[in-house]
Amino acid sequence: MAVKICRMRNQSKNGFLFRSQDIKIVMQEDSDARPSFKSHMLEGKSSFNLLFLLSQNINMEAQDCGTSFSFKKNQYILHYSSEESVAELWTENHETLKYLQIQINYSYIFNLINPEDNLESAEILENMIHNNFIFLHKETPPDMTVEMHMIINEIMNYSKKGVLQKLFVETEIIKLLILIFEQFNGKNTLKSTPEIGKMVKKFIDENYHRNIKAEEIGKMVGMNQNIIRKEFKAQYHTTISHYISELRMLKARKLITNNEMMIKEIAIECGYEYIQNFTRAFKKKFGVSPENLRNNK
Question: Are 73 and 124 in a shared domain?
């Protein structure tokens, strides 16, 4: 995939995040106040193109077939291009235009799915070629799920290069394709409420030792933080902040009783920048200070 951008002195953040013989990933973020500004996107011959729309009110016109699309934020399409083609993208009201584009060669997908292996694989490839993954219901593009948001963020923030990046990208693309196939099989425009809570809990379980807040979780999964708070509390009957605190305290008690680490080191390990805050929270939870617990164990 190549992307040709009409910058014309606009502010932009764009370029290849990854490029190999079979896969190309481009991040595009442009801000231009003039109504004439458009981004020109080139799809390669015999390629599958995943396009994730990450800003509001994006319009796209495919010049090869004269088809126009209007996207809301956090929608996506999976499009097959048999010939090299160009599409124009722009936003309403001259807002920032931001999207992530992943191009995968046909031969790579063919070998990955192996349609000669079974009927299910053949049907998936047939659906991909006939662009049956553009609209989920009638003329409505599918919404990105929580898991998709997390994968996209991981791709955009991955810093390693070389073979590790190649293996990482290929793994993440397989995950994205699985999520897409599952979404279309279930015909769900949105993940169910329990699934949202489950993904938020998973993120917290893996990151509670950092100074994370609902705002960061909202940005990570691409959802309003108030919705995240509401759905998490509805499923787990506690607030996000209380759940994080509980995880930290349980880990702190385990480290104090089973480890020779300094109390200050334990505080940092459990996500507390200041030892005074850690001591206060620990005493409130267990009725004893970290020092006294260690001395009396």
Answer: yes
Q: What is the DSSP letter of 75?
A: E
Q: Mark whether 198 and 102 lie in a shared domain.
A: no
pTM for the predicted model, two decimal places: 0.62
Task: Report the distance separating Cα 229 and Cα 222, nearest Å.
Answer: 13
Paired with 40 in beta bridges are 4, 88
Specify whether 118 is located in the same domain as 257: no
The answer on 74 and 202 residing in a single domain is no
Are residue 29 and residue 160 in the same domain, yes or no?
yes
Domain that holds residue 211: 193-240
The burial of 158, by beta-carbon neighbours within 10 Å (0-12 exposed, 13-18 middle, 19 or more buried), is given as middle
Say which range, 42-56, 90-104, 152-166, 183-197, has the weakest mean pLDDT.
183-197
Average pLDDT for residues 76-83, to the nearest whole number?
93
Helix locations, 59-113, DSSP H: 106-113
| Dist. CA 184–CA 264, nearest whole Å | 50
Decide: residue 11, CB within 10 A, 0-12 exposed, 13-18 middle, 19+ buried: exposed
Q: Pinpoint the alpha helices (H) of the chain.
A: 106-113, 119-129, 146-157, 163-186, 193-207, 214-221, 225-236, 240-258, 263-269, 275-286, 290-295
* Residues 209-230, mean pLDDT to the nearest whole number: 76
Residue 16 shares a structural domain with residue 150: yes
Q: Clarify whether residues 224 and 290 are in a common domain.
A: no
Q: What's the total number of domains in the chain?
A: 3
The mean pLDDT value for 208-213 works out to 82
Contact 268, 209 (CB under 8 A): no
Q: Where residue 103 sits, what CATH number does that domain have?
A: 2.60.120.10
Given this model, what pLDDT does residue 187 score?
A: 58
Co-location of 272 and 284 in the same domain? yes
**pLDDT over 70 (residue 276):** yes
DSSP 44: P
For 219, the token pair is 């940005």
